[in-house]
Each structure stands twice: as C-alpha cells, then as structure tokens.
Design a protein that fits this description.
This protein is α/β, with parallel strands linked by helices. It has two domains: about 90 residues, Rossmann fold, CATH 3.40.50.20; about 110 residues, UDP N-Acetylglucosamine Acyltransferase, domain 1 (3 Solenoid), CATH 2.160.10. The chain is built from two helices and 25 strands. A hairpin with a 4-residue loop joins β24 and β25. The termini are far apart.
C-alpha cells in the first residue's frame, strides 16, 4: 500500500477522500493518513474519520515518512498558489481517479489530476497537471484541458475544445466544438460557449459573453 495525504480539508477534500476509499474497496491501494490544511483551527480534528494532520509544514518533518499527496483545493487560482508551496517542499504528486470513470487508453494526463465519479472521457484527450474534473463531466475527442483547470459538476467539453491554464468552468456549462478559452478565465455556471473566449475574463450566459475582465494578482 502507498501512503497518501489529501491537501485541503474542505468539501472537495472530503470528495477526494471518497475516491481513495472507493478504490480501496476494489483493491487495497492506499494507506490514507489524513488531511493537510493551513487552517490551524482544524488541526487535530477528525473529518469523516480521518485526522487533519497539520499545515504544509507537516510534510517537511523527517519523522513523517510520507511525501505523496493530491491537492484537493478546487478553486483553480488558489490551487496554483498552494502548488507553488508544495513544489518547494518537493512532494510526490499522485492522481485520484474514481473507479467509475470511463476513458479510453488514448487519454493522456499529467500528475495531481482528480477525476470524480461518473465522468466520461472519450479519445485522444490531453489533460495537464493539477486538473480537477468533477462529477458527471464529459470530455470529447481531441480536447485539451491545460494545467490547473477546474471543471465543475456536469460540464460538457466537446470535440477539439481547448482550455488554457487556470481556467475555471462553472457547473453545467456546455461547449460547442472547436472553441477555445484563454488562460485565467472563468466560465459561469450554465453558460453555453459557442465562440472563443479570451484570457483573463469572466464569461456568462447563453450564449456566453464576456462580462468583465479579471484582476490577476501575481504572488510569485
């Protein structure tokens, strides 16, 4: 068995916990040690039967012989900031893919990828690092989902769609074929994307239209 900790003890962290538990029902793969969270008020508490071990510094202690984790912070830009800290620590990222996920062997994905129950990925799809694909999403042929993207539940990505880095897609959004979304853009819940959306904006509605530009803060 491989030891693992879940970074982020919020709602999505609990959902990722269930992915590991469901995998263990099929084959005892994971020794789930618990959660890591920077909220000190959670330290030492049990969440769904698993302890909050401490903050990110817990991963640096030599006595804790564990360096495998998955980042379960669902907001794309916040997740990227936490990943910068984890990279400095030097952790080993693993993927959390629910046993019910349907995908072809031509799907290529990076590390620290979370794919939740009921999602379907067809063929010749590219998924970057630190990507979250929530419950019951569909991803069509030749789609590209770049690093740090988040697909909320029920999103439908179509053939030849391309999402840039740090894109957040709200619940139930739908894309037609052959459209792209620029880096750091947010697509609102229920939007229908029928044309390319530029970077660093928020787009909502049916059809999706840009409603405002996003203010991007560089924490580097």
């Amino acid at each position: 068995m491989q030891s693992v900790v879940i970074v982020g003890a919020g709602g999505f962290g609990r959902e990722v916990l269930e992915i590991f538990k469901d995998q263990n029902k099929i084959s005892e793969m994971w020794d789930i040690l618990g959660f890591i969270d920077e909220n000190k008020e959670l330290w030492g508490k049990l969440i769904n039967g698993y302890p909050v071990l401490g903050g990110l510094d817990w991963l640096t202690k030599p006595s804790n012989k564990i360096n495998s984790c998955v980042c379960a912070i669902n907001t794309s830009d916040i997740r990227k900031e936490v990943i910068r800290k984890l990279d400095k620590i030097g952790v080993n990222y693993i993927n959390a893919i629910h046993p019910s996920v349907v995908m072809s062997d031509s799907v290529k994905f990076g590390y620290d990828v979370v794919i939740c129950a009921g999602s379907i990925l067809t063929t010749n799809i590219e998924i970057g690092n630190h990507v979250h694909i929530n419950l019951n999403c569909t991803v069509g042929h030749d789609a590209v989902i770049s690093s740090y993207c988040t697909l909320s539940p029920g999103v439908s990505i179509n053939g030849h769609n391309k999402l840039g880095e740090v894109v957040y897609v709200g619940t139930g959004a739908v894309f037609v074929q052959n459209v792209s979304v620029g880096d750091l853009t947010t697509i609102g819940a229920g939007a229908v994307v029928i044309e390319n959306i530029p970077e660093k904006v928020c787009a909502v509605g049916v059809p999706a239209k840009v409603v405002k530009e996003k203010v991007i803060i560089d924490h580097s």
